[in-house]
Amino acid sequence: MTDQLTSTPARTPADTAAPAAHLQTPSTQDNGLKRGLKARHLQLIALGSSIGTGLFLGSGASIQLAGPAVLLAFAVAGAMIFLIMRMLGEMAVIHPVSGSFAYYARKFIGPVAGFITGWNWWFTCIVVGMLELTAAGVFMDFWFPGLPHWITALVALVVITGINLIHVGAFGEVEFWMSMIKVVALVAMIVLGLCLVFGIGPDPAIGFSNLWEHGGFAPTGLGGFMLSLVAVTFTFGGTVSIGTAAGEVENPSRNIPKAINSVIYRIIVFYVGGVGIMLLLWPWNDIDADSSPFVRILMGLGIGGAAVILNVVVLSAALSVFNNMTYSGGRMLRDLALNGQAPPFFARTTKRGLPLRALLFNSGLMGVAVLLNFLFEGQLLFALMAIILGAEIISWSAIALAHLGFRKQLRRAGQTSTYRAPFFPIANYGCLAFFALLLTLMAFLPDYRIALFALPAWVLTLAVIWLGQCVHQRRNGHDKLSPDDNLITTQREI
């Protein structure tokens, strides 16, 4: 790469030691990044960021746990994540920065919370990237069952990293079209399914009987429904990545609310609608958890051509989420470096506004998935999903807690925001209680239990690193607040 690197002075942990009591006008430039994402890019990032392996592959496991009652689980989990998205959106409209919820945790909870949240989301991006690379190999089995998964992972890693090294607009354009493909395909599959259900065409109507003929609507009872919430909630993990795009989107005060408001429609159409069609077309107890249930159902119905097309879609969906995690993780690592919480080496951007060093470093780490698929092919998916869900719970909880502090600062300043998250503060505490319930339920699922035990160890490790960094900085005399550390000075009309 020949781009000239530019840098912004990093802030030390001590620089962020005190939350400010003022509001800050959103900047037009996020310290070296360029606002190269258009409104249509953000809309499709919001629509497609979580339509990936969790829905196309992981939904089979949640269906096996709850049967048709999994539709209620999707509705409950979707409602919780929508509330979290509205909290994130309210903060992002006033503070459209690439650090997103790590920035908000740092400012509204405390510096150690920002450190843990930022590094946790960076870790989430790395592990999700590894998951999607692994899933891409699984989806390629449809055509080439003998092709080693590590080859698919390597090709995908090189191609997507190359796209992200061009320009933020290149990322946005690729994400736009890949998201468009899976959105259109899901809508088409739902329409096709409805035709089969109601008998529109040459075949007789399938009807609705599959919802209750195989043990009833809730064949595994309340226990199965509760346990399914764990796997179902995992599928919504990518939604908050829209926050890290806030620093590079045009007109954030208008485009961020529009993108986030679309989340509720995505939940209804793509999750409840898509999974509902699967349950109508095929008995829930015959849905395979080890391959894409969407593809297998279409093949079982004798719609081979549609199954081939849909497998192209699920493969592109995995690559789309990997593309999103490559982008989001690089911006988060850069934000940590800017705030003295990661090596300043990663704070630099090129003249085209790319955090080149952060992107390359992250891609190298995600490339470990190539080696793991070579050594442990077929054994990674559910282990990675469990680890990711635990990390996502940290990010979601940080958003709910940061939003409480954000509203407190607004109240002290005698101001209000125009894009307000609903049901405050009941929604915040309700979401936190839901996440605590998920952690409890994970103890009853062997595939997720490892993450439950690893989660406190991970948080404790980050806290110890933070304390060590604080001691080091104080010994070197870094104990002053940065003059630009005040969060809010005036609130712009939104």
Automatic annotation (TrEMBL):
Residues annotated as transmembrane: 44-63, 69-88, 108-130, 150-171, 183-201, 221-242, 263-282, 294-322, 358-376, 382-406, 426-444, 450-468
Domain Amino acid permease/ SLC12A: 41-475
Protein topology in the membrane: Multi-pass membrane protein
Entry's localization field: Cell inner membrane
Residue ranges with Low complexity bias: 8-21
Alphabetical list of Pfam families matching this protein: AA_permease (PF00324)
Family: Belongs to the amino acid-polyamine-organocation (APC) superfamily. Amino acid transporter (AAT) (TC 2.A.3.1) family.
Name of the protein this chain belongs to: Phenylalanine-specific permease
Region ranges (Disordered): 1-32
Cellular component terms per the entry's GO annotation: plasma membrane
Gene3D superfamilies given in the database record: Amino acid/polyamine transporter I
Naturally occurring in which organism (per UniProt): Corynebacterium halotolerans YIM 70093 = DSM 44683
GO biological process: amino acid transport; transmembrane transport
Record keywords: Amino-acid transport, Cell inner membrane, Cell membrane, Membrane, Transmembrane, Transmembrane helix, Transport
